[in-house]
Structure formats: C-alpha cells, structure tokens
Amino acid sequence: QLSEKYAVPTTSLVVQGVWAALLALSGTYEQLATYVVFVSFLFYGMSAAAVIILRRREPGAPRNIPISLFNTDLTRAHPAQRIQGVLVQ
C-alpha cells in the first residue's frame, strides 16, 4: 500500500529496513559481502538462462535491442552476457 503523502510503499520500506538491520547485526562485513556476491552471480546466471530460453522459445519475437546469443565483445555486453560468454568460451 502506498503512502498518500509521499506515494511510496511504506510497508515494504519498513520490512526492508528491519531486514537490513538484522543482517547488519548478525554477521561480519566479510560474511555479508560473500552473500551479496553469491546472490549477484546467482541472478546473473538466471538472467543469462532466461535470455537463452526466451530466444529459443520465441525466436521471431520483436526485440528493441539486437543482441547475439554468443556475444564475443564482452566490454559492452550486459553483465549476464559477460557471464554467459565466459561460461561458453
């Protein structure tokens, strides 16, 4: 539910703040950084898998940005494609 005055999801902000406080109090910085890196790579992998699945499932779908499935120019690629490129090579 949105706040009438500021039009922000107040419940979500409170829950996120409590969760962040619990995480900050529960462990060391190194442990939290490890969790963040792990989850980031997990989501990068899921994004790369989603691109592959959608490209195979809907090959003729209109796309706003043309991206080859096996992009070799890793300097300009999306992070998910960088991981995909590293895994494919």
Characteristic terms for this protein:
single chain; 89 residues; mainly alpha; 3 helices; 63% helix; flat
Explain how this protein is built.
The protein is mainly alpha-helical. 63% of the residues lie in helices and 0% in strands. The chain has three helices and no strands. It has helices at residues 10-26, 29-57, 79-88. It is flat. The mean pLDDT is 79.
Main sheet properties? none
Task: State the order of secondary-structure elements, H for helix, E for strand.
Answer: HHH
Query: What's the total helix number?
Result: 3
Strand composition percent: under 5%
- Would you count the extended β strands for me? 0
Distance between the termini: 46 Å
Q: Provide the residue-averaged pLDDT.
A: 79
Radius of gyration: 19 Å
Output the structural class: mainly alpha
Q: Please give the share of residues in helix.
A: 55-70%
Query: Which consecutive residue ranges, at least 5 long each, have pLDDT under 50?
Result: none
Approximate shape: flat
